[in-house]
Amino acid sequence: MTTPTSGVAPAPSRATAAPSKLPNASEAKKRKISAKKKAADGSGTSKKKKLAGRRTAPASTEAPASSIVEPAADAHHVLDEMPTSLNDDAYMSTMGVGSNNSHWSQTNETHLDDHEFEVDEEGEGIVEAPKGRAGNYTINDDKLLCNTWLQVSRDPSVGGDQSRDAYWGRMKEHFDAQNMSGIDRSERSLRSRWSTINSECQKWAAAQKAVDKLNPSGTNEDDRYNIAQNLFREETRTTKKGKIKKGKIFTLPHCYEVLKDDEKWRKREDLDDLHLSNKRKRTIELNDDDEEDDASSEDGKRSPTPNSVSYSKPKRPDGCKKDKTEKKKRKGDDDLTNAMEAIVKARKEAIEVRKMARNQDAAAEERRLAAEERRVAAEERKVALEERKVAMEERTRLLEWEKYLFFVDTSLFNEAQMEYVNLARQEVLIQKRAMINTMGSGMGGGGLGGMGGGGLGGMGGMGLGIIGGLGGFGGMGAPPAAMGGMGAPPAAMGGMGGFRAPSNAMGAMGGFGAPSNVMGGMGGMSFASLMGGMGAPPVAMGGMGAPPAMPFDVPHTHTRANAVEELAKTVGATSDAVRDEEEDSSAEEEEESSAEEEEEDEQDG
DNA sequence: CATCCACTGTTGCTCTTTTC
DNA sequence: GAAAAGAGCAACAGTGGATG
Q1: CA-to-C1' distance for A220 and B17, Å?
Q2: Does A562 fall in a domain?
Q3: Do A125 and A266 sit in the same domain of this protein?
Q4: CA atoms of A470 and A496, how far apart (whole Å)
Q5: ∠A169-A172-A175 over CA atoms, to 5°?
Q6: Is the residue at A564 inside a domain?
Q7: Domain boundary, last residue among A238, A269, A300
Q8: Which residue, counting CA atoms, is nearest to the C1' of nucleotide C15?
Q9: In terms of domains, do A291 and A406 share one?
Q10: What's the confidence (pLDDT) of residue A49?
Q11: Nearest protein residue by Cα to C1' of nucleotide C7
Q12: Does residue A6 carry a pLDDT above 70?
């Protein structure tokens, strides 16, 4: 990396101060143009590069304004007469710095008046004018150049890491952009002027620092200023040819005012550096911050003076690398932040979508489950209702049958009928006892039908013909397995048929007014088997007085007595035998029935 | 008014440093 | 080590003041 800033001027040898001559305005002179000399000189190559838009050297026919302006008093003379207590303003005024009456300011006006655009004969455009030296740099030009240097050299985005041409190209751009004098300054001119300004200001800074180090007693800031001026003026330099150049006073305080507070420029203000003509030594010194810190610390022990340079160590301006790094970092952080935000946003959106989907699925599932539960519950209720309905119907039939069985008038029954009735009654009683015992043991009513059917079926299977018909009844409410009981073995049925029970007896059964359904079912089965076995004629069957639910229509024209008689006639020869048996069994049944009635009374009680 | 001198701007050259 | 670039120096030219 190279720095376009010039270093510290070579060490001048101290010599006796020689009075310098400053412009004397005692007489005005017209400017003489000697372009011919420049054109003949091979070194004047720069003359050909200035084109339209620039201010050229003063025309030969014009008198320079500077020559008609009263110049300021002789600076050298003024310096000699300047009191030691002169303050800055007084000195600046005396030196013509910052004053409209000063020589330096007058030169500024001179240039403004001197430089004009030259146009061609037709006046259509600016043509290349005769080249001459541009006017002297004014205070404003110097200040502008210093400010330009600060701006360009401190730009962290570019810094000093650029070629000389690039750097001074930017310097020229900045300078031209703010240059109100109208004088076009070439890059080379700016470089040369800056070299002078920088060198002079560095020497001046070193002189002031030396005075601060001396810290003479009994002096105020003005005294120190004058001492610094004397030190500066005593500095002389010797050219390569051995020519000694006499010192002069510092004439660029306006530039120093601009530069003194800049950290980058102040790095080179050590007076000792003035004695280092060797660039290598200068480079080493500039890189050695510790020594500068030591010097600052020594200065820090003294009380500061208004005009003294602050030796505190302020923050160094950011450099090019730091600026680029921070920009890159900022950009990277922004990119990373944006990417992270996008990821977080996308993730949040995905979570929301999934959450909504889950909510929807869960709601639908809940609704479906609820509907299923409701459907199952309704099904269960329906089944329960049907079961209850069947159970109620079965119970109703059973009660009706029992009611019929026990309250039937058996006075007209023959022996067989009585036996059947008695057996049926006993069976019912057995069932009821068992049921009561079961209920007493905690069994439900559901067991009644099973026991009843099963029991009857089982009994039906016992080989009793008549009971076989009863088994069919029991199987009515029994499950299909128990229905097997209904279908009593054909042998048993045949046996029943073999009884050839008198038709009047059956007719009497039907005449009891039993429930049509019960009797129909019972009668149907009984009569189907019975009639098949008996082979009785339809007329006889019709005489039985079967209930309306009978499969065949039987007119109810016969009385009970007639029915018994017809049944007896049908039975024929066997009626006597049957009658005898009925009498025997009836006696026994009466005894049993009386006993049963007593038992029932006891249970009811 | 002509000339001399000093100053300033400009530019080429040289030295030093840095980079490849 | 060579090349490139920066910085300083010196010379030159232009300008203005002083002086005879």
Answers
A1: 44
A2: yes
A3: yes
A4: 11
A5: 150
A6: yes
A7: A300
A8: A31
A9: no
A10: 31
A11: A6
A12: no
As a whole number, the mean pLDDT across chain A is 51
Q: Give the per-residue pLDDT at A373.
A: 87
The full 3-state SS of A484-497, as one line of letters, equals CCCCCCHHHHHHHH
A454 lies in the same domain as A572: yes
Residue nearest to nucleotide C12 (CA to C1'): A43
Rg (CA), chain A: 72
Comparing A77 with A209, the larger pLDDT belongs to: A209
Q: Is the dihedral of CA A94, A99, A101, A104 positive or negative?
A: positive
Residues A291 and A398 placed together within one structural domain of the fold: no
Protein-covered nucleotides of chain B (CB closer than 7 Å) are 1, 3, 6-12, 15-19
Same domain, yes or no: A286 and A411: no
Percent of chain A past pLDDT 90, that is, above it, reads 0
Nucleotide nearest to A133 (CA to C1'): C14
| Banded pLDDT at A175 (limits 50, 70, 90) | confident
Question: Domain for residue A219, yes or no?
Answer: yes
Question: Beta carbon of A34 within 7 Å of strand B?
Answer: no
Residue A259: band (very low, low, confident or very high) from pLDDT cuts 50, 70, 90: confident
In a 3-state reduction of DSSP, which class is residue A366? helix
Distance, CA of A521 to CA of A47 (rounded, Å): 144
C10 C1' – A287 CA distance, angstroms?
A: 29
Task: Name the amino acid, one letter, at A280.
Answer: R
Residue nearest to nucleotide B5 (CA to C1'): A21
A44 beta carbon to strand B: under 7 Å: yes
Say yes or no: Cβ of A164 under 7 A from any atom of strand B. Answer: no
Q: How many domains does chain A have?
A: 2
- Distance of alpha carbon A298 from the chain centroid: 59
User: Between A230 and A476, where is the model more confident?
Assistant: A230
At which residue do the structure tokens 């002179």 appear? A29
Of A300, A320, A340, which closes a domain? Answer: A300
Query: What pLDDT is attached to residue A433?
Result: 84
> A233 and A112 in one domain?
yes
C strand bases under 7 Å from protein CB: 5-19
Domain of residue A463: give its range. 390-604
Residues A117 and A217 in one domain: yes
Verdict on whether the full-model pTM lies above 0.85 = no
Task: Establish if A173 belongs to a structural domain.
Answer: yes
